[in-house]
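Field log, afternoon session.

UNIT: design team B
ACTIVITY: writing a sequence onto a fixed backbone
BACKBONE:
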């Protein structure tokens, strides 16, 4: 991976924990604001940039993998919406950093790693979403000096708010490319954000490309078959959404629910045994997750994701039962936790994990 020589790479290796705690407190205080498409969490994203979080998570501050996952868990506990947006931003930034053209875009990399600009990814249609269609969701036509893009990207987080989008597109011969596209490029049309029961402030929506022209200098991968599964650094180093990163966010939200239950158990002793059991389960899964980041070959990532998903559903439901009627109030934090927990049943949920959930709910053994 190309490392920019920017001279101002701030990191949090010194006194990291105290700084992260300060940031997490700030994010948690702001989190209730981010509840609709009218509430893009720009303030929280800027704070993460200023604290050096984006540099560290992008691999620009020598953070070990374990520290990166621990940071994601802490951020997700404080504010899942902002943390989710950060994962999409990192997906774009890491692909740019690992690409052959990285050294040509030092200014963009500096803006993205500092949080002055935010990026997102529009690549789901190359893997699952709309892949069944006869015509690719997004096509790339070679033109002099670059490509012309046409089609619709079904899911782009921060569609109307981000500055750059890594777009996946298919050529007529079946080859695919990833391109860094300016979000205000002519003929690019972004939706304001879909109305959703949770994570709405992530402003995730479709982006339409009507003959959007890009230069070859902005093609960060390809053309090649199956560009997302190609054995290239641009793919390998980003960390798939269905892997450890997503499980880390699930554990972060579980921790928020457990923190609420732990506080309640001090007033209601009958909750102590239940809360202790769930906390112990969380600690075991957390250690498995952190061990997996150091030796992933020894871990069943699908099973780990399934267990993280199960835990976040159960802990948030337990928190709701604990909160009783108050938890159904829109402004109650447990209401937000329960809504957000459903997100993990949808977001990049591998089919084996989805099947395991369905079988469990039906009282059947997973295949």
């Amino acid at each position: 991976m190309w490392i920019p020589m920017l001279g101002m790479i701030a990191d949090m290796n010194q006194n990291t924990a105290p700084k992260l705690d300060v940031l997490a407190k700030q994010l948690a205080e702001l989190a209730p604001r981010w509840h609709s498409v009218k509430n893009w969490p720009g303030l929280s994203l800027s704070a993460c940039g200023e604290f050096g979080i984006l540099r560290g998570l992008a691999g620009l501050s020598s953070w070990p993998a374990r520290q990166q996952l621990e940071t994601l868990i802490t951020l997700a506990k404080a504010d899942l919406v902002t943390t989710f947006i950060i994962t999409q931003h990192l997906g774009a930034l890491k692909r740019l950093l690992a690409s052959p053209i990285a050294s040509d875009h030092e200014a963009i990399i500096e803006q993205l790693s500092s949080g002055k600009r935010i990026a997102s990814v529009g690549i789901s249609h190359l893997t699952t979403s709309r892949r069944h269609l006869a015509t690719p969701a997004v096509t790339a036509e070679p033109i002099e000096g670059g490509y012309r893009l046409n089609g619709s990207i079904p899911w782009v987080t921060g569609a109307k708010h981000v500055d750059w989008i890594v777009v996946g597109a298919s050529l007529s011969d079946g080859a695919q490319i990833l391109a860094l596209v300016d979000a205000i490029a002519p003929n690019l049309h972004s939706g304001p954000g879909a109305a959703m029961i949770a994570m709405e402030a992530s402003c995730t929506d479709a982006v339409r490309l009507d003959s959007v022209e890009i230069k070859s200098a902005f093609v960060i991968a390809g053309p090649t078959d199956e560009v997302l599964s190609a054995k290239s650094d641009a793919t390998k180093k980003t960390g798939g959404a269905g892997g450890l990163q997503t499980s880390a966010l699930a554990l972060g939200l579980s921790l928020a629910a457990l923190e609420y239950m732990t506080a309640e158990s001090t007033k209601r002793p009958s909750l102590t045994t239940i809360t202790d059991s769930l906390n112990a389960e969380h600690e075991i899964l957390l250690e498995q997750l952190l061990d997996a980041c150091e030796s992933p070959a020894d871990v069943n990532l699908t099973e780990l994701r399934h267990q993280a998903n199960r835990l976040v559903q159960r802990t948030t439901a337990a928190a709701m039962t604990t909160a009783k009627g108050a938890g159904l109030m829109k402004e109650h934090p447990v209401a937000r936790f329960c809504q957000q927990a459903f997100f993990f049943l949808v977001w990049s949920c591998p089919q084996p994990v989805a099947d395991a959930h369905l079988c469990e709910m039906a009282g059947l053994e997973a295949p």
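LOG NOTE: The longest helix spans residues 272-294.
NEXT ACTIVITY: expression trials, pending approval
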